[in-house]
Every structure is written in structure tokens, then in C-alpha cells.
Specification:
about 90 residues, Helix Hairpins, 3 helices, disordered N terminus
């Protein structure tokens, strides 16, 4: 029998290695996204909001928008650079 078949076919209990790998990938992606957006909020807020209040001023809002765009762009550049330098 195929060593990666489901538990009903092989007699093993639990999910297949492929299912486990997909779950781990999803969890890693979620953790990365949470960290990314947490860092983004922290950095851009600290840079753009000097006197926190109940709402953002127009200049604070514009600053945050520009900061987010730059951060996302920079992260994309870094990601592409890292991926292109990896051996194939």
C-alpha cells in the first residue's frame, strides 16, 4: 500500500503527512501575517502618530498610508531577493 494513503486504507490513525504539512504551512502563514501586520502597526504608528488622540489627523492618516505602502514594498523587495538567492 501507499505509505501516504489515508488512515482508512492503511490502518493508521490520524491525518496523512500531506494534511499535516498543509496544516503547518497554514499555521506558519498565519503567524507570519500576524507578526508582519503587528510590526507594521507598531512601526508606522510610532513614526506617524506623535500625540495619540481619539482620531487621526489628516497628516497622520497620510503618513500611515505612505508608511504601510513603503513597508509592504520593502518587504516584497527583500522577499524577492531572498528567494532569488536560494539554490534551486
Amino acid at each position: 500500500m501507499d505509505p501516504y494513503s489515508s488512515s482508512s486504507q492503511s490502518g493508521r490513525s490520524g491525518p496523512s503527512p500531506e494534511v499535516l504539512m498543509d496544516q503547518v504551512k497554514q499555521q506558519l502563514a498565519q503567524a507570519y501575517a500576524e507578526e508582519f501586520f503587528g510590526t507594521l502597526r507598531e512601526k508606522c504608528f510610532a513614526k506617524c502618530v506623535t500625540k495619540p488622540g481619539t482620531s487621526l489627523s489628516g497628516s497622520e492618516s497620510s503618513c500611515i498610508s505612505r508608511c504601510v505602502e513603503r513597508y509592504i514594498e520593502a518587504t516584497g523587495i527583500i522577499s524577492r531577493s531572498v528567494l532569488s538567492s536560494m539554490p534551486r
